[in-house]
Structure formats: C-alpha cells, structure tokens
Write a structure and sequence with these properties.
Strand content: under 5%
Structural class: mainly alpha
Oligomer: single chain
Number of helices: 15
Helix content: over 70%
Order of helices and strands: HHHHHHHHHHHHHHH
Shape: globular
Number of domains: 1
Length: 427
C-alpha cells in the first residue's frame, strides 16, 4: 500500500513538473515571438539600433535555449534551405580571396548569416495563417508610424521644403524608403479587403495614404515603377482595393508637388543622362577581374576610392563614372561583384526557388492561401523592380527581402500541408 501511494505521489509530482515545464516553454516561445516581431517593427524606424539589436539577439538566445534543452523541435526544412546553404558556403569561400578581408568577414556574419537566421526565426514563430497575418499587421503598422512620423519630423520640425526636398534620414536613406513603403502598401491592400470593421478599414486607408505620400516624396521613379507592376499583379484578386488605392495615388499626385518628377521630359532626361549606366559598366569591369569569388562580401568596399578610381580610369572621359557614392545601384550587379559569377548563379537559383513557392501557393486549393500568394508575389516584385536601380542589399531593404522569403515559406508550408506540428510548443 505504501509503495502504491509513493508511486502515485511520484506520478502526480511528474505531471505537475511537466505542466510547469510546458507553461515555461510556452512563455519562452511567446516572448521570442514578440521580440522578433518587435525587431521587424523597428527596422525602418531611425535611432532604434539598440532596441533592434536587443530584440534580435534576445530572441535568438531564447530559441537556442529552447532547442538545446529539447523543449521544441527545430527544422531547417525549406525549399530555400539548399540555395541558402550553397550561397552562404560560396560567399564564405570568397572571404579567403576578399580584397578587404576584415570588412568582408564582418558583413558576411552581420548581413548574410544573421538574416538567414532571421528568416528561420520568422518561419519558426509565425508558422500559421494567423501568424502570417500578424506579421503583415506589424509591417503595415511600422511603416505607418515611419511615414507619418517621418513627414512630420522632416518637413514640419526640421523645416525642409515640401516642394523640392526628398525625405531622408541618416539611418533611412532616401533610396531605401521606397523598398519598405512599397511592400507595406501591397500588404496593406490585401489586409484592407479582408476587414469587416469600419475602424480597421479607416486605419488601413490612413496607412496606405501616408505610405504612398512617403514613397512619392522620395522622388524615386523606380519605386513608382515597382509599385505599378505590383498593382497590376494584385488587381485580378483585389479590384476594389486597388481601385480605391489608385484614387489615393491620384489625389497624392494632384495635391502635392511630386508630380513634377513624373513629367515625361524629366523621366526621359533621367533615363538618357543616368549615372547608373557608367556605374554598372565600372562594376562589370571589376567583376571581370574577380570572376569566380568576387571582391568579397564587405559593404565598405564601395568606399575604397583607390580601387574605384583604378576601374573608372579604364574608360574615356565621356563614359567615366563621376559619382562620389559608388554603390552598384543594382542587386544583381552587387551580388556579382561580391561573390562572382558563381555566386550570382546561386542567387538566381534562390530567386527561382522563391518564385516556385509563390507559384505553388497561387495554385493552392485554399482561396486564402492563393490570395496571400498573389499578394506576396506582388510585394516582392515591387521590391525587386526597385532593386534593379537602387542598393537592394542595404540593411533595411535586405531585411524586407528575407522577411518576404520567410512569409512565402510559411505560405508554402500551409499550401502543401507540410507544416511541422512540433515547431510551436503546445501545453
């Protein structure tokens, strides 16, 4: 009898301990989810570097603790796993041949490995339709705060001229703003038609208007082109929302000074006299000298004036680049120069796998999955078109690129019913 009583007491103690452990696991899981969501929220907000660093590394530390203690099951399975692995390995090999090894090592860890980790954290913690929608709301809310706050600060408080000055900040350069606002606009349009509450629709309308104004105030024609293509992709499934948004764009163009940079003669002169052609020619010369592994993954190499001048001087005066900020201004050229032709091929492989996931999601039997598939494809095309003319691998744009990679991966898992049931802890 005594032994039976002791056994029963032990079982009760074990069950109680298990419940406590499960509750602790769920608490850690929710905390990490909030932290990584906060990181995404603060990405476009200037002067929040310390907050972003804390959120990311705290979420990573919690995740490592959960995985090492076997409280959750971690999975690297993803259609992008192989492209990520191959590209990261090739970029790692390139470190040994980099022109500037210390900077290349730093940027390889800080701007490639870190964002691959971000991709897996997002897939891990937002691995459901509700999680995907929550992440979408975070992006829209973040860009609404940035757009409204940015315009008030830049034009209202700092006193810049609304009629002529491009909106920009030290931690959010003018060329980077359109990447994030365009993505938020497309996601916001998808959320708009899903809402039944008038208050939420009004909130999203304010968000769309402010993000549109912020986009146009950068005077970026590449952002407008990307947004236009994205709207064409989105129109078949979101006719009403896109129609309303076109009215918003028309109002912004008519009632603000931004229409001047969209005039036919201005656009034509911008294309014919664009400095980017000389920049691209110069970088292609550089790529020909480092065809296999590139010059290294370091982003500070663009500031190497001696290296830049060496290649600029290969051209006659009329074809020389005169820029004082020699970024590649093209995501494919940037990858080519950093990682060589092999690295560019692997990056294209990554994009093909991403496109394949989008296509499979759009073909899903679930109409909700199909709609999100079209939305995320449109959002990525808005990013990618602009990335052909701007620095698409800078810190803010590349985070949005990896975030879109993660969102499409989540959607692909939902559409193919391959979501790992053990990813999220359950009580």
């Amino acid at each position: 009898m005594q032994q039976a009583a002791d056994a029963s007491a032990n079982r009760e103690a074990d069950l109680k301990g298990k419940k406590v452990a499960d509750r602790t696991t769920v608490l850690f899981h929710q905390t990490a989810m909030i932290l990584i969501g906060a990181f995404i929220f603060f990405v476009p907000i200037p002067h929040t570097t310390a907050i972003k660093e804390f959120c990311f590394y705290a979420a990573l530390a919690i995740t490592l603790f959960l995985v090492i203690s076997k409280r959750v099951t971690w999975s690297f399975r993803s259609p992008l796993a192989l492209p990520f692995l191959l590209f990261a390995l090739w970029a790692f090999i390139g470190l040994f041949f980099a022109v500037d090894k210390p900077n290349s090592v730093h940027d390889y860890l800080a701007h490639l490995i870190r964002y691959i980790a971000l991709y897996y954290l997002l897939v891990h913690y937002y691995d459901s339709l509700d999680g995907l929608e929550l992440l979408s709301w975070i992006i829209v809310a973040s860009l609404t705060l940035f757009s409204v706050g940015g315009m008030i600060c830049f034009y209202g408080i700092q006193g810049f001229n609304l009629m002529s000055d491009q909106m920009l900040f030290k931690e959010m350069e003018v060329n980077n703003i359109g990447f994030s606002t365009a993505v938020a606009i497309i996601i916001g349009l998808t959320l708009y038609e899903k809402q039944t509450q008038r208050e939420r629709k009004l909130l999203l309308l304010v968000s769309l208007t402010s993000a549109t104004m912020a986009t146009f105030l950068t005077h970026s024609r590449a952002a407008v082109a990307g947004l236009t293509l994205a709207l064409c992709i989105l129109f078949p499934i979101r006719k009403k929302a896109v129609a309303i948004f076109i009215c918003v764009i028309a109002a912004v163009v008519v009632l603000s000074p931004v229409r001047s940079f969209l005039k036919t003669d201005v656009v034509q002169n911008s294309i014919l006299q664009n400095e980017r052609f000389n920049i691209w020619r110069t970088y292609f010369e550089m790529a020909k000298d480092y065809p296999l592994t590139g010059i290294g993954y370091g982003m500070e190499l663009w500031k190497n004036r001696e290296l830049w001048s060496h290649y600029v001087n290969r051209f006659p005066p009329e074809r020389k680049s005169v820029t004082i900020d020699p970024h590649p201004h093209n995501i494919l050229m940037s990858v080519l120069v950093r990682t060589g032709f092999v690295g560019l091929g692997l990056f294209v492989f990554l994009l093909i796998q991403f496109a394949r996931m989008c296509a499979l999601s759009i073909k899903s039997r679930d109409p909700v999955v199909r709609e999100w598939g079209v939305c995320l494809l449109a959002a990525f095309m808005a990013y990618f078109v602009k990335a052909q003319f701007e620095t698409g691998l800078d810190q803010v744009p590349v985070i949005f690129m990896f975030t879109l990679f993660a969102m499409v991966t989540i959607l692909h898992r939902l559409s193919s019913n391959t979501t790992d049931k053990d990813v999220a802890p359950t009580v």
